[in-house]
Amino acid sequence: MTAVRMIIFAILMGTFAPLAAQDGNFLESFAETSEVSRSQLATLIESADVPVTIEGSASQPIRADELAHVIMQLGSYGDTLGYRLFPGPRYAIRRVRDERLYPDSPRLLSAGAPVDGTTTLQLIRPALTEAVVRPPSESETVEIATRTVSGRTRGPWFEWDVEQRGGVSYRSGEETSASEFSADTRLDTQLVFSSRAQLIAQLDAAGTVRDDTSNSADLRIPRARLDLFREPQGRGWASSLSLGRLDETAVVSDGIAARLSSAAVISSLSVGYTGAVAATLNRIPIAETDAPESRPLGEGQFSPQRIAIDGTVLFPEVFGRQNPSVAVLSLIDPAETDALTQVRLGLSGPLSISLFYDLSADIQFGTSSGWASRGSLRWYPDVSRTTQLEVSAAVAGSDRGNEEGYVALDDDRSWSAFPGGFTNLAATTVSYSARLGEPWLVSASSTLLNRIDSEGSVAESVGQPSSTSAVLGWEGGVELGIQPLPDLFFDLNSNIFIPGTEAWGGAYADSARPIWTTGIEFTARL
Amino acid sequence: MRTGTQIGLAVLMAAVGAVGIPANVQVQETTGLVQYRLPSGSQWQTLTPGVELPEGTTIMSGTNGSAVLNSGNTTIEVDALSRIVVSEVTLQPQEETTSLEMRFGQVRSRVRRAQNRGMNFRVSTPVSTAAVRGTDFLYDGRELYVTEGDVAFTNLTGQHHSVRAGQTSRTWKHLDIESVERTILDQLSF
Fold first, then answer.
1. Residue A209: pLDDT above 50?
2. What phi and psi values does residue A31 have, to the nearest 5 degrees?
């Protein structure tokens, strides 16, 4: 008798519970909810014919990553390596971000954020309606495995994300050959105190071991960043405090930065210093011609929508820098991305001996029309800059693309006038990318570098050209990739650079022989 | 007097034409559970084929529900788990207008161009609006996929994209609109 009652109860649940979850009153109140609870979500998905587990206190709001886990359990999206090994909210939210169901940026919908009713319905709708129980004629049995566990309190929790990239490449020329092993690790951690207050730490470690004629090695020092922000839904403020230490080939940069942002305007101000211990930690002897790259001592940014203002101020009297102080104003039309064809025109010139200007404008059309413009002022206080006027133009485009692949073309040309002569430079790149059928990917590119109708020399370090027009070099490359899972990627690439005769003694290596570079790289996100 | 009558009729017709004649949306077919609530009522009723829906009617489809609606030359397929409000349906000699407000869900719309009559079809959501003339598109409030014709896509901040056949656009709350060829979207995503 008891068994019969259970069967009847199951049938009634299978018949009426889904209907209750679809009722207009229920859905209307669900959509009005500012923070959807686990029990509300459980009621909604009872109409699905798949076993779904929701853990946690029934009355507590569901978090964005937990909602992603529910969506993954509904079965519309394929597994990743991480989710297959450790099925749970952590890998689920990454998967739905990859699928672009969730916004890419965690700042827009962080893993620990509660989700309002309307957003929940928008996010779960595709998976839920696909997995839904069809009318009785199409489905004879209904299994409801929704489970809520009460009594679990939620305290601070810890989230982490690691991306590991490794590679090896081999380069050979006439007199030199080198092999390089590289590994990059990025660790993102979040300590979530509540749904709207988090502490974020980011740790980057990049290592490269290079074996060339100098037998030098370059080990980079990690960089850490701490962000603490409070972000109410919709609008609000966020602040971050960054502690940075970045060690690149020839310079060490330490600094501290603070940022305050709101939903519409992001303003930041950072100060820092460039360590005078450049490269000593790297054990790299710095050649006289390899002056340390300058680091800005002061930076400012103001970026309301469509306008970006950047400023960099240096203190050349301290370090005798070569790089300029720069002020940049950019006006950006939102449609500037994803265009198929782009035309860029630019103009640079001197305003005085030490002050230069840059103006450029992009016009883009194809998928959508748009434009972007940029103007900047450069100040060289040590007057080491060669006075010159430069006009640049570029055309970039690609075809509309199809299932097999697409072709892209990029043609850049610049004309520079300087004391004693002028030069025309042109670089044309044609590339082709195609999928060979899942999961293979292949691409090829060709770049031709030319100098046309030139005279004089740009600098004493560049040899006097023997003719006015020349092919400076050609570079071609092929790449074969395989992505068996969304979070696992292998890449095999090979490039060859063949310098033209005019490149001898100039900007390129003093070699008439081609330089081959081959490499293999893998990337895994764990 | 005759001239005055003609002028009066002309003014009346112009006034009617400017305001538009309210019309109804007809339900062609339904699947699963779909409910509607009239603007004057507070109770949800089951939607069935043949029902006429005036302006202000709210339509709610359940997780297994869907409906096909007709409004003039426009066919609207309301997918499962959608909430639609028929905010405006008017017929004018020179133009017919259908406006929907979609809080959540997805609609597929086929707007057929009518001879000597302008078509004005618009779907608004809390974050964006899609307005079309003679087109076929799929729209869930955040992502728009156009299969035929052109769609004007506008987000909360007034940014505007003209999305053509074969393209998809998306936005998220106050963010910029992204538009891209759908075939490219699925490639090189790593």
1. yes
2. -65, -30
